[in-house]
Structure formats: C-alpha cells, structure tokens
Amino acid sequence: MKKNLKAIIQIFIMIAAVFTLTTVFSNSAAAADTSLQRVKERGELIMVTSPDYPPYEFQVNKNGKDKIVGMDIDVAKKVAKDLHVKLVIKSMNFDSLLVAIQTGKADMAIGGINPTAARRQSVDFSKIYYSGGQSFLINSSDVNKYKSAKNLKGATIGAQTGTLQYGLAKKKIPNSTVKGMDKSTDLVLALKTHKIDALGIEKPSAEAYVKNDPSLKMISSGYHLNKNEIGAAIAFKKGSGSLVAAVNKSIDQIKKQNLTEQYLAGAGKYMKVNTVNTSMFHYWKYFAKGVEYTILISVVSTFFGVLIGVILALMRFSKQKWLRGLAISYTEFIRGTPLMVQVLFVYFGIGVVVNIPALISGMIAVSLNSGAYVAEIIRGGINSVAKGQTEAAASLGLSKGDLMRFVILPQAFKNIWPALGNEFISLIKESSIVSIIGVTDLIYQLNIVRADTYRGVMPIFVAMLLYFVMTFALTRVLNHFEGKMKHAG
C-alpha cells in the first residue's frame, strides 16, 4: 500500500512539474511583448469564438456550404485586413475562450465579451467596439406577468456561465435563483420549456431571437452599469500591448465610421437565410460531418485504448514492483478524474508546451481515459483463465511470452468480450465531450444547428437517432463476433 501511495505521489509530482514548465513558459513569453510581431511574421491572426450567439457570431448554411458570420466576425475581418494578415477562426465553448488565449491557442478571443474588472486581471482587452445593452428574454405567454425586470424578483433567471449577465442577475435581481448553462441555445430551450422564467442576454441577441421566434418576447434589464464594463471588447493574452494597440486603431475606425451598424445589418441578412429553411434535412451535411468525426474519434480511441489497456494489464502482472505501481497509479488517477477535465488538460495544459490541435487532443484524452478502463477489464479476463492452462502450457515448454500471447490472452479476450463491447459503445457516447474544445463532433454540430434554426428540440432528437444508429450497428457487429467466438470454443 505504501509503495502504491509513493507511485501516486510521483505522478502528482510529474503533473506539478508540467504546470511549473507551463508557468515558466508563459512568463518568459510575456517578458518581451512580441505579440504583434508574431502575428505579422506568421501572416495569420488566430481568433477563437463560440459561434452560437447571433447576431454576434453564428454559422450560416447557404447553398449547402457553412461558414461563421456575424458582427463580431466582420470586426475581426476588419482588424485582420488592417494588419495585412489572414484571419483564422477557431471555434470552442464560450467559457474556454479566455483560457485559449491565455495558453497561446489563439491571438485573440471575440464573442460579445464584456471587459469586466475580474476578467481584466487575467487578460488584456481592446477598447469596447459595441455597446448593445442588456435585456431579458421571456415567453410570450408571460408578458403580463413580467412587464419589466422589476417583476422578476424571486424568479428563476437563466444566463450563460461565465458571462456578465450571470453575475448581474445574481447581484441585481433580488431573491432570484440563477441557473447557468454553457450554451445560449440550451438556455433558450430551458426558457421555452419553462425551466427558467427569464434569460439574461445581450440586447442584440435578444432582438435576434424575438424576430425569429414569435414565442419569445424581450424586456429591458433596467441595469445601471459601469460604462467601462458593458459592451463587447476583444480579449488578448496578458502582455500583448503591441497587438492591443494595433487592434485599437481598427476599433477607432469602426467607431468613427459607425461600421457596427453595417455589420449588424449584414448579420440580419444571414439570419434570414438560416430561417428560410429550418428543416433538419437542410442541415444534413452538419449532422453527417458530426457523425464522421464521432466515428473517427471513437475508432482511433478504441484502437489506442485497447493498446494502452493491454500494456497496463501486463504491467500489473509484472514482477517489477515499479511497473506494477505505475500501472496501478495511472489507472486509479485516470478513473478518479472526469474525462472533461482530462480533455481540457491535454488541450490547454500540455498544449502550452506542445501545441496540439483540438482533434488530436481529444483523441489523446479519450484514448488515455479508455485505456485505464480497458486495463481493468483485461486484468479481470486474465485472472479468469484457469491456472491449469498455465500449468499445461508450461509442461509443453512454452515461454512466458508465448504463454501470454497464445494461451492466456486469447481466452481472456473471449471471456471479456461483452465487457469490452460495452466499453466501445460507451466510448462513442463519451467522445461527445470533445466538443468543449471545438472538435466538430455530433454534439458540436447539434448545437450549431440549434443556434442557426432557433429550433431547440428537433436537432436533439436527430442527434439521439444518429447515436442510436451508431451504437446499435456496433452492438450487432460485436454480437456477431461473440457468436463466432462461442462457436469456435
């Protein structure tokens, strides 16, 4: 037990070392401000956003092709044009945007981000380029009940996690219960299904939903706020003074020429394109792409998960105590931490030292997680093989390697096939967690379709059917091979 504890402590020391290297790397990068120089030398301005917040940023499906559009995207294009570089857009959850720039995944983050005092402690901000004001969305059936924000006292208020609206609802609405969610699309669905009474949201976004969904109405927030914290600004990594200064020049031009009104008008036209045809068949390419990535992640993670699992299981039976301790520590640590945290750590934590793309990061995290569970399944299978098999193989003069390869493992896999099948099926569903770092799997595409079409339930139903088809097909395949194994036995 003491030796296992020692091995676990060693793993924690290694993790602490990674964080230390990350901190040193980040501090050394911030020591000299080369933010603008790096962008120009690269010829690309890398921007992260969460494209589920019309009219600021959202995806449009036109003539079978999809792209990210919106007022914020036009602002970013203006900045990139003035810097004479190409704009590269990366998508991820809103609550990961600031982490992305802090860890060097992008040069700037845009997404209707309010430059609050708390956020300014962690990142740099440009000047505010647009102030749309704060509003609440309510159901049309509640217009007589909630005539103004004053009537929301004691109500259940929804707001996107990590936003200004979430904090304001807690501070400004007396006796209210505030519920936070990662996606604005989830919040709108919660509102329409009466899980919440009102939704705190930026005024332009509220207007966009009201125009496209007659079941929703908008009321003013009545907030009196610090003008330096309300409105949208662009976020940058701390110490990016030269890049911030260059971007502020573009924002000065945007304000002088009142370009945000033009950008909003353009976003409105795109939103009309989305609502012309909101059938799920019209968005079949979105779902098809999501299925493609889900299958890819599942297949790759299954292969490496089994490989890691076999290695860990064999390490558990090694005579080398340090190998056994390492395998036990790894398995316990991985099984004791959420997959979501592991995905974030691989992408943002390790990614600071080695810049790993989102898709590969997701595959690595899911593979490492699956390997720990597969290892225990295989270990159980090896233990289930009768000792007489080992004795018979030894009497035939088989080496330990051949014994494991030709006698133990084949019988073990036969015994554990149903359990492995369950792990593979679970992997298809659990891989959906990679959407939080912007991997375009089925869940990611589902949220995009919901944001584009203003339909909350139908995209979810389609995704459920697609997951069922994938898992049912895999179940049939696994059962086929299980039957062949039984027949062979």
UniProtKB/TrEMBL annotation:
InterPro entries: AA_ABC_transptr_permease_3TM, ArtM/GltK/GlnP/TcyL/YhdX-like, MetI-like, MetI-like_sf, Solute-binding_3/MltF_N. SMART domains: PBPb. PROSITE patterns: ABC_TM1 (PS50928). One of its GO terms (molecular function) is transmembrane transporter activity. It is a multi-pass membrane protein. Residues 1-31 form the signal peptide. One of its GO terms (biological process) is amino acid transport. Keywords: Amino-acid transport, Cell membrane, Membrane, Signal, Transmembrane, Transmembrane helix, Transport. The keyword Zinc does not apply. GO terms for cellular component: ATP-binding cassette (ABC) transporter complex. The chain crosses the membrane at residues 295-318, 339-360, 456-478. It is found in: Cell membrane. Belongs to the binding-protein-dependent transport system permease family. HisMQ subfamily. This is Amino acid ABC transporter substrate-binding and permease protein. It comes from Lentilactobacillus parakefiri. The lineage of its organism: Bacteria, Bacillati, Bacillota, Bacilli, Lactobacillales.
